[in-house]
Write a structure and sequence with these properties.
Layout: E1 10-15, H1 20-31, E2 36-40, H2 43-53, E3 56-60, H3 66-78, E4 82-88, H4 103-131, E5 134-139, H5 152-172, E6 177-182, H6 190-194, H7 211-223, E7 228-229, H8 234-240, H9 248-259
Parallel strand pairs: 1-2, 1-4, 2-3, 4-5, 5-6, 6-7
Length: 261
Amino acid sequence: MPIPVPTDSSTAVVTGASSGIGEQLARALAARGYHVTLVARRAERLERLAEELGNAGIVTADLTEPAKRAALAAAVEEAGRTADVLVNCAGFGVYQPFYESARFRELEQLRLLAEAPMDLMHRWLPGMVERRRGAIINVSSTSAFQALPFNAGYAAAKSHLLLLSEAVHAEVSGLGVTVTCVCPGPVATEFQAASEAEFAEKLPKFTWISAERVAQDALRATERGARLVIPGGPVVEAMFLPNRYAPRGVALSVAKRLMAK
């Protein structure tokens, strides 16, 4: 199976582990016997989760900062752990017209959603390929399937992560490593409120799924070596997947109406 069997020295590095999808992926990996390295900015939440899981370590880090990403890699190495699983899940979204948004916030979003996952993948993927065992799970979004007015930087960054994941998935095919991109639609987590993503309330209720379901579907997809998964099953997939192939002009027109406040 593409997810390696855990060893005494292996770990699953999970970013964004203090809540939501990241927390549920950490729980699911721990339930499978993995030591998990929990990464987020909120130390208190990580400490509570680590205590509950038992076989876990924590690293508090703002992953928008290159030095903190280097410190994360160093902490894993100093703990005598080998990163056999990497979950890139940390994120937030800017939801307002691009011309009105704060430049520092747009750049912070880009660093966290695009630069940080690329950096962490590049740090640990070579070792996975050398050992011929490893799994990378990148949490993107159905927002990656089309340009989104009023959420422009977020959709662009998530599209970057999707395309990066698909390309690297193809590169490592047959080398004992898999890269799976997880593209959820709306999920009932703190993310929606923190990002002021009111547009999600306009989507049909059947498209909303739990963070637990996202984690479950993500790990199942990784086990079968899937390149891409839209969590929630065939009905949810049928709702969002066509957006990826719709004519750009049509997609933009529909998205602008949906995203407008």
